[in-house]
Each structure stands twice: as C-alpha cells, then as structure tokens.
Amino acid sequence: MTLEVGVLGYRFMGKAHANAMARLPMFFPDAPDVERSVLVGRDEDALTDAADRLGFESIATDWADVVDDVDVFYNLGPNHVHAEPSIAALEAGTPVFCEKPLAPTLEEAEEMAEAARNAGDGVPAGCAFNYRFVPAIRYAKELLEAGELGEIHHVRGRYLQDWLADPEAPWSWRLDAELAGSGVLGDLGAHTVDLVRFLVGSERLAGDIERVSGHLRTFVDERPVPEENETRPVTVDDAYSAQLEFENGAMGTLEASRFATGHKNDHTIEIHGSKGSLRFSLERLNELEVMRVAENRGYETILVTDEDDPYVENWWPPGHVLGWEHTFVHENYEFLRAVSEASEPSRAGGGETADGGDEFEPSFEDGLAAQRVLAAIEESDAKREWVSLE
Ligand code: SOE
Description:
By secondary structure, the protein is an alpha/beta fold. 32% of the residues lie in helices and 25% in strands.
C-alpha cells in the first residue's frame, strides 16, 4: 500500500520533511511507500513553485479539502495553524504528524491531545521533536536506561541562537504572541524540555519534572517590517531560563536565547549521575562525550558513527558523518512505519516500530507534556514564584 501524504507548509519545515520522504526509499528500503501527494498553502504561485521543487503531485489552498482525503496529514505550518487542521484530520481518522511546539497555548495542546486520544491507537498522532532521532542522543538514552550513569543529579540544557541580536533584524510571525504563542520558550525551549523528558524522564532515572522556576526576557520590543516600511511590536520572549526539580530530587537548569552572539544553532545537553556524566552538543552531533567515575580520567569522546549505532547502518560506512537533515529522515521513517503498522498490522509484521515500541513517540501526549512545562515556566515568570506541575 502506498501512503498518500498531504503536507501543510512549504517553507523551512516543508522542505525538511519533503527531503526526508524523498530519501526513505533509497536509504530505508523497509519504510512504507509514500507519495508526496498534495501540498497545502495559501499563495497559489508560491505553492506551485514549491510543489515542483519538493516533488508533490498537486496543490490545495484549503486544508479542509485535504485532511480527510489523504492517508497521512503533516502539519508543518506556523504554530497558530497547528490545532484546527490537526484536530479536523484526527476527527476524520487521518494520522497526523505535527511540528513542535504542539500548539501556541496549553489549552490548544490539550484539545489536540484529546482529539488524538479520541481517534484511538489506530490513528497515530506524532509531534515532530526531531532531536530525539540524532544517533548520539539514542546512544545516550541507551547508556542512561542501562543505568551506566547511576543516579541522576543534574540535567543542564541550553539552546543558543543569535539571529535576533541585531535590533534591525526583521519582524516575523515567530515574534507575535497570537501567531507563535511564545518566543524562544516554545520554539527552542520545547526541544530542550522534550529531550530532557526523553533522556531522563523514566521512573528509574529522574522521573517527571515536578516544579519549575522560570524567567523570560524580551530585549527588543519592536522590529522593522521592511516591505511595509513600518515597525511591529515583539510580543514574545527573546530569551528564557528555568530551574527544574525532578521527581527523584534531581536539579535541572535550562536556558535558550536568540541573542547569544556567536551561536547559530547550539543545543547542548549535560547530565551528571552518580556513576558518570555525559555531554551532547548539536554542533558536534556525531559525538557523545562520556565520563565514568570508575575510570576518573575525564570525558571520552565517542564517535557515534559505527554501523551498529542507531540508524547509522542505513547510511554510509563508519565515520562518514550524518547531519541535521538526517534527524528528519529518521523521524519520518519511524512515524510512517507506525502509520503503516496501525493501518495494516499483519503486513507490517512483528507489531513493532524500529525503535522497539508499538506506538510512535514523541506523540501528541509528549507534545502536551512539554507544553505543560513551558506554560508553568511562563506562569512562574509572571508570578515570580516556583510553580508545581500536576
Ligand atoms: C528556529 O530558528 C529554529 O528553526 C526552530 O524553529 C527549529 O525547531 C530548530 O530546530 C532550529 O531553529
């Protein structure tokens, strides 16, 4: 069976996911057959051009005509269009893959997760946190789950970019509270919160995030719109920092900024446990640094580029490094396998996706869980006090 995919959004994320789908038959031959069926957007000329470049069969200017007509719906539009089309697709029984953050607000994220629950297990609903699919992150997760770092005490996550450091950098939808929900908190903080939950969130490690203390800051509160010769207000945060307390008593420190001069896309995670520590940086995504207390010789740099490392055998010989775009191929592989498995359990065989689970993760429930943490950080900033999560 060929899965017909409808995709809303044809800019940055549209390109990343279309590229991923195009790579699947070459590198993941056991992936389901996928047709880039219809590309959805508002501007017909731009859409026609993008559909040609990205390999789509057709275009549509209204998502409502598409969501119940395709086998899978990808929602890669700006945050403010995440909820309505995704919910409509799920109500029509169409699996949905939605970009992060799941929604601009906690209320909408709750409605989306409820729609996913109502749609049932046969209709996968995934939230596209692509950094879970970096081979070195999967490797780190295996070490942590095997207990090799012991009891977790500290988790540190920072995501640094600098594209707004220039006060003349133009206004965009990402800077508007109505369209984006929040600023760097939802855009970058969502990734860090999700990775932290993925890596140490299990009961045997640090467990759930129980309370947070957050601090948000907007450095430049209006920006130019060059085409219209005017300025518009910035109504979201430019930077955030947060302290976390986990169920097991571990401490977390998170931070992100669009004003971190010199940093383009620097997502770093550090974890310290009783038996050792690890360090990952997106700027060196083929490596994982691991320190073991028993050896006490500092950090060892492990090249996660061997054929038995997660996903690597599908690509190149050992040492032929992977990059950012590969994370999208991996998540598309897992998500589309889950869709195919859910629709045809006997043909997909085995009942398990390649990452060992029956259902795709990160799911809408994971998207909602991250959103709860983000909302608590915002609330803490507003109230200037620690906020507990239910
Ligand atoms: C913002 O600059 C951005 O593109 C995010 O929206 C992505 O989620 C992140 O992966 C890279 O940075």
